[in-house]
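ok trying again, last paste got cut off:
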Amino acid sequence: MSRRTAKVAEAVREVVATTILFGLKDPRVKNVTVLWADAAPDLKSVKVFISVRGEPRHAVLAMHGLESARGFIQHQIAQQLDLRYTPILQFVLDPGAKLAAETSAVLREAMAQTSASTAEGSADAADVTSDPEVQDVSALAGNEAEQRSPDPRLTGVMGETPEVWAAPSGGTAADPQDDPGAEPSAVPR
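nice, full thing came through this time. structure:
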């Protein structure tokens, strides 16, 4: 799709959306969302993809209402856009938004079930830790963790470089000031 075609399609989408929202008095056309528009390369026709919230019968009624109001909507496009030809509109019901909403609802339900089962699992874990034998094992595990100390080479005062990361004293430091005990390198700077 060329840049001009995309711009015209977006302009048509905006005009159609505002006309549906503010200009149509048809009671069949409600809960309609204009998702996007696809203009033909010659700009003589535009497919307008819509989504209708609610039951399938609401979508059928909205499509009939839009088809009967197509002339009025095309007239609004002719008045608001400066085009050589007024594009002929074709309304297409896009089920993608409805499928996304249904998928989101299923995922929310699954998350709620997962959190409920996690809450039950934590209650079971509380029962297990009240068992005296399990407490003894967990106490032993805690003592082992306390006995192990971190690697002393990786600890240090903030701002100090641990000796693991410091340059060795064989003169391989990038700057002699970095390693004061190093001999000057043989390569001149």
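cool. Helices lie at 3-23, 56-68, 70-80, 96-129, 132-147. The first helix runs from residue 3 to 23.
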